Amino acid sequence: MVSYRRNRIAGGTYFFTVNLRDRRQTLLVDHVGALREVVRGVRDETPFMIDAMVILPDHWHAVWTLPEGDTAYARRIRLIKSRFTRRLLAAGVHLTKDGRGDYDLWQKRYWEHTIRDDLDFEAHVNYVHINPVKHGYVRRAVEWPHSTFHRYIRNGILPADWAFEGVDGEFGERNG
Q1: Contact 77, 18 (CB under 8 A)
Q2: 152: closest CA among 15, 18, 53, 43?
Q3: How far, rounded to the nearest angstrom, does the alpha carbon of residue 35 sit from its chain's CA centroid?
């Protein structure tokens, strides 16, 4: 079995991508209220700062900062995935099971990147917020309702016209 190495820095800031197994599904936005409640519940139990987050039909991206001394982001993601799955089942959503008997909703793994510095943080927050435009769901980032971009506008960090279709710039991972 492959052993995945995860970087665990106590109190660190991380970027995540978590995907549904079937990328044609739209369950995350179809049930966005349930997903938000699940994330809030996990955050209440095991605190962390949501620096940026966007929920798309088949995946979500987030930048989280953990409390000082805490490295347990994997537990938080596991709780979000399992509780959202249970919420869907309780709502009557039909989910299939895989060969092991687990519900076949989520990809087994997720992408994690440790934020290294302020420029890396900015690039990943920008990537989170530009993602609905990048995928063609909207023409401007402000048009996507399931994003912390709106909090950035309210707090005066970014203008409402910050990102739009055809925008150039570096978002996400830097090369080199």
Answers
A1: yes
A2: 53
A3: 11
Express each pLDDT in 12-59 by its tens digit: 999 999 999 999 999 999 999 999 999 999 999 999 999 999 999 999
Using N-to-C axis directions, what is the helix angle for 32-45 and 73-90, rounded to 10°? 140
Report pLDDT digits (tens) over 96-122: 988 888 899 999 999 999 999 999 999
Q: Which domains does the chain have, with CATH numbers?
A: 13-154 (3.30.70.1290)
DSSP assignment of 65-101: EPPTT---HHHHHHHHHHHHHHHHHHTT----B-TTS
> pTM for the full model?
0.89
Residue 168 to residue 171: CA distance in whole angstroms = 9
- Phi/psi at 133 (5° precision): -70, -45
Tokens matching residue 112: 């994690």
